[in-house]
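My main concern about presentation is that the manuscript never shows what a single data entry looks like. In essence, backbone conformation is discretised, so a fold becomes a row of integers matching the chain in length. An entry of this sort, consisting of the sequence and the corresponding backbone structure tokens, reads as follows:
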Amino acid sequence: MKIPVIKRLVESQTLQSLVAAEEALLEEQQPAFEVEGEDEGEKLTHVFAAIFILNHMQDNGSEFKDALREYTKKVRVSIS
């Protein structure tokens, strides 16, 4: 997971385009825009994180850094 990649996706894509990219990646197809990542799994992680962050920002009126913090908390909990 690379935070600069996630930040670029949040800043440059709409929620709808990210959801479409997630669906394309899940179906082993190319998304309509470039998603950086070493493999399909990392690309999907970046898209999923951007979707979570955009939703959190919209739902809570929060800034990117706060939404990113919430996402990383969820990742840490799921790992432990």
Observations:
- Helices lie at 3-12, 15-26, 40-60, 64-79.
- The chain has a mean pLDDT of 96.
